[in-house]
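batch job 7 of whatever, protein = GIY-YIG domain-containing protein
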Amino acid sequence: MTSFEIERLSFSAAQQKAWAESDERHRNWPVVYTIDSGSAGAQEIYVGESLNVASRMRQHQQTGTKSHLTDVRLVVDETFNKSAALDLESYLIRYLAGDGRFRVLNRNDGITDAEYFGRQGYQATFTEIFDELFQQGLFTRTIPEIVNSDLFKLSPFKSLNVDQAAAVEDILEGLFADLRSHTASMSVIQGDPGTGKTIVAIYLMKLIRDIADSTGAEDLDADSVFSEFFLGDSPELLRDLRVGLVVPQQSLRKSIERVFKRTPGLTTTRVMTPFEVGGDPGHFDLLIVDEAHRLNQRANQASGPLNKKFTEITEALFGSNDLHKTQLDWILEKSTHQIFLLDAAQSVRPADLPPAVVEKLVATARSAYRLYPLTSQMRVAGGSDYIRYVRSMLTADAPEPQAFDNYDFRLFDNLGDLRTELAEREGQFGLARLLAGYAWNWNSKNDASAVDIEIDGIELQWNRTQKDWINSSTSVFEVGSIHTVQGYDLNYAGVIIGPDLRFDVEQQRIVFDRAHYFDKKGKENNPALGLVYTDEDLLKLVRNIYGVLLTRGMRGTYVYVCDEPLREYLRKFFI
C-alpha cells in the first residue's frame, strides 16, 4: 500500500482559506508540490516544498512571478520529514528538466543529494510517485528514457558532488571579490573524463543567471551552500554582466544549446564558438570555456573562410597577423574574467592548444590559487582506477593487470560477437554504441551507399551526422568517431582499436601507423608555424583518442583490436 496521496486542484483554489483549513497538513506538514501552466500557453512548471504549503501558495501568487501558472499537485505523505521533502523536490526538478515537456522555473542552487536516515526507503516511494505522475501526464517519458537523454545528462539542475560544489563556491567567492575590486581573474577547473567538467560549466551559467535575476522576494533555501550569493549586493554585481559559454566542439555545443533553449534565463546565444567570441564587436565580463584544451592554435582550419577569419580576428585584436596567437589569446583579450575547464589528455588533433600552453595555463592558475581539481568519478562505474588503467595500457608505462568487479570490461576476438553483446545491452539499457579510431576513410560522407569499415566480412558506415549523433535514429547501426562522442556519456561503448595502432613485435612497443590514419586534420603538418609532426607526435594524440573512446561507457566497455599482435599484447589487461 502506498503511503502518499497526490492532490490536484487549481492554483486559485490553493490560496483559499477554506482549502487551507480543510486539512491540517496544508498548514503544518512537509509537502512537495508542483505548479504548472496546464495545457494553455507556454509549458512551464515550478516545484517546491514547504511545511506550510497554504501560506506558500499565497506567497507565490503575491510575488507575481508564478501567477500565470494554473494547476497544482500536492504530494502528501504521512511518513515524510523535511529531509525527505527536500529530496523529493530535487528528484522531481531533475526528472522534469530531463523529460523536456516543461520549462522548469526553479533556480538550481537548492538541488540536494544529501544522505539522511531512511533515504533508501524514501527513494523507492519516489519511484512510485513518479509513476503516478507519469500516469497523470506530468511526465512524457519513463525514468530510463529520461536518464539516457542529453536534457538530463547536461541539465543545470544536477546535484553537485563535493568536488564540484567546492569549485563552484570558491570560484563565485573569487568572482564577487574581483568584481567589487575591479580586478581581472582567471580560474582553471581540471579533471579526468567523467568528473563532470561540462556539468560544472552549465551549472555555473544557470546559477549566475539566477543570482542576477534574484529579487529577494521569495524565500531562500538557507541550507543551500550557495544561498549567501543571493544576498547583499551580489545580484546587482551580476545583473548587467555579459557572460558566455564557449564550446569548441560542434556536436557537444549543439546538445548544450538544446538544454539552454529549455532553461529559463539561458539562451542559445550564450553558447558560442571561439570564432564567434573572437569576432564579437563587444567585450565579455566572463567567459566560461569548456574543453579548453580543444581551442586551436594557428593551423589550417576546416575551410578557407575560417582560415581567413582566423587572420582577421587576430589582426583586429592584436594589430597584426601574429601567427603565434591562439584562440586562447582571443578569449583572454575579449574578456575580463575567464573560467577554463580542461583535461590535457583529451587533446586529439595537432591544431589543439600545444601541451606547453595548457601547462602554462594550469601553472598560472595554480600560482594564483585558482586551480580546482575534480577527482570524483561520476561516469564510469570502474572509477578513477579504470580511467588511469585504460589510459596507461596503451603507453610504455603499462599498468599491472587489474580486474574491475563493478565494470564490464571485455576483449573480443570477433567483431560480430562484440556487436551481438552490444545489441543486447542496447535492448537492456539503451545508449550502447559502436565507436572506432579514425582508421578508415569516410567514404559514405559523399556516397550514402558506400562502405566505410569492413572487418571479418562485416560492413559498417561512419556516423551519418556530426551533430548529436548518439541520439540520432540511425546511430545504433553506425560507428561513431572521436568527433561525435567527446564530452558524451554512454551506458556501454564498443570500441574498435583500428590498424592506426600496431604492436611492433621486434621493438616490443605500440607504434602509430600513419598509412591507416584517415583524419586529415589529425595528421597534417603546420607550415604556418613550421611544425612537422612525427609518428611519435601523432602516437600521443591517437593514444588520447582511444583514451577518450575507452572512457565513454558508464557500465562497460567492449573492445575489438584489429592488429592481431596488439590484440595479443593487450589481452593480459582484460581479466
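notes: The chain has 20 helices and 20 strands.
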